[in-house]
């Protein structure tokens, strides 16, 4: 009898090891996470932030019930008023432990030393936009591009990443000195006090558009753009801490001239949306382990002109308010 029980236990352990991938996650874990996510979000939908070229009008929005098909919500909902250029590109939104959504965005193509910030609870009424001068201490900085928000629930802080070029600061490589980007970060708990700006990652090449994805405890993925001239595509790297060190940078999983990734969990898999700016369209891939990627661009539908943004969740109450406002803006 004891021998039989021991054999059963050994079989169960062996089965778990078979299901477990090299990255430490299992397909069943992802399915369980998705099921729990859906159960806790029955009264919510996806919201995709966006902008329209030439980026001088402000924030645009789209929503989706299924994570694949997106309905336009008109716009703009927040006009760009800060920065030298008065533009809004790459709006990144996330929510912390309360009902407030925080948004950061690119304010200048060149010459800016910070990014824009505003907050809202309904995407209609906003706090007064202001600049966060994260690179004010760098007199030669060329730009501050594509700030990206990540809420670190474990420590109750927001991590903000962005790309900047400081000429002659790093090995030149393939890029001109004014296009040799590295990723920087700061953290904050209240968007009033910020930690000192620090280098986030230097992988030896020009990099922009980084997105942190938490899969599990001590299991993080960084989706990044290799911005070197021959590449300009998306890759991934891995770490046990949201601030890195990120290692094992992958081969590209998208084609030439792609950027602006944002990631959701859906149907037991991760979907990575990206701006296919070479073809002036949006694309998407799905993956279970961030090692194999399947192109599902033919399964998604986005409003015409949609550009680089992020996806979050909003309640149906907030959505109803946006639908009503959208009718006024049309």
Automatic annotation (TrEMBL):
InterPro entries: GH43_arabinanases, Glyco_hydro_43, Glyco_hydro_beta-prop_sf
Keyword terms of this UniProt record: Glycosidase, Hydrolase
Gene3D superfamilies, A to Z: Glycosyl hydrolase domain, family 43
Pfam families from the UniProt entry: Glyco_hydro_43
DNA damage as UniProt keyword: no
Keyword match Hydrolase: yes
Pathway: Glycan metabolism; L-arabinan degradation
Record family assignment: Belongs to the glycosyl hydrolase 43 family.
Protein name: Family 43 glycosylhydrolase
Organism of this sequence: Zunongwangia endophytica
